[in-house]
Design a protein that fits this description.
It contains seven helices and no strands. By secondary structure, the protein is mostly helical. The protein has one domain. α2 crosses α4 and α4 packs antiparallel against α5. The protein is globular and about 50 Å long. The protein starts with a helix and ends in a 7-residue tail after the last helix.
C-alpha cells in the first residue's frame, strides 16, 4: 500500500520503483512471515484447477465482449480504468518484466493469502484469530472478505469478487493456506503468460 501511494506522489520511474517494491516486500515476508507460511499443499490438482478457472473467468468477459471493460461500471473515478501504467519502453524492459512476473507469481499470492484468508477471515470471526482454525466458516466473514478482495482490484472488481469467492471457498474446503497460495499463484502465472503473449498489459495495472 505504501508503494502504491508512493507511485502517485513521487515522480519515480516504475523501472526503479517496482523492483524496489518487490525487494522490500520479499524482505518483509522473509523476516516477519517465514514461520507462518507453509508450501505443503494437500490438494495439488484441485488447487491447479481452481487457479486456472479463476484465470479463465478473469479474462473471459473481455474476450466475449471487447468493449465490456469500457462500461461505466468498470471505468469511473471510483474504480479507475483498465489501463496499464507501464510505458511502451517498460514493456520491452526484460529486467522490469522479470520483477513484475516474480512479484505477481511468487510474492502477491503469499502476501494476499496471509492477509485475506490467513488473517482477516479468521479475525472477523474472533479478534483472537489464532484460536480460529484455518478455513472456519462464518457467512459475514466470507462475504466481507470477498467484497474487500474485489475492491482492491479496481476496474476488475467483479472478477475480483469471483476470485475472492473462489479462494474463500477453497480455504474452507482444504483448510490449508498453502492450497490457496498455490491456486492464487497459478492464476497469476497464467495471467502473466497471457499478458506477455497477447500484449494485453491492462491486466497489469
Amino acid at each position: 500500500m505504501f508503494f502504491v501511494g508512493l507511485a502517485h506522489w513521487l515522480p519515480v520511474s516504475p523501472a526503479l520503483l517496482y523492483p524496489l517494491r518487490v525487494v522490500v516486500v520479499a524482505a518483509v515476508l522473509i523476516v516477519f512471515s517465514r514461520r507462518l507460511v507453509s508450501f505443503r499443499a494437500s490438494q495439488w490438482g484441485g488447487s491447479l484447477l481452481v487457479g486456472i478457472a479463476v484465470f479463465v473467468l478473469w479474462v473471459m468477459p473481455d474476450m466475449l465482449w471487447p468493449a465490456y471493460r469500457s462500461h461505466w461500471l468498470f471505468d469511473n473515478s471510483l474504480v479507475g480504468s483498465a489501463r496499464s501504467s507501464a510505458s511502451p519502453d517498460l514493456r520491452r524492459d526484460v529486467a522490469f518484466i522479470a520483477f513484475r512476473v516474480f512479484g505477481s507469481v511468487a510474492l502477491v499470492p503469499i502476501l494476499e493469502e496471509l492477509f485475506w484468508r490467513g488473517w482477516m477471515m479468521r479475525w472477523l470471526i474472533d479478534k483472537e484469530f489464532l484460536k480460529v482454525p484455518l478455513g472456519s466458516y462464518l457467512p459475514s466473514a466470507f462475504w466481507i472478505v470477498a467484497a474487500l478482495f474485489a475492491s482492491e482490484h479496481g476496474p476488475y472488481w467483479e472478477v475480483g469478487l469471483i476470485a475472492g469467492i473462489a479462494y474463500n471457498w477453497w480455504i474452507i474446503r482444504t483448510r490449508n493456506l498453502a492450497d490457496c497460495i498455490l491456486a492464487h499463484a497459478v492464476t497469476n502465472a497464467t495471467l502473466s503468460a497471457y499478458v506477455l503473449y497477447t500484449g494485453q498489459w491492462q491486466y497489469w495495472l
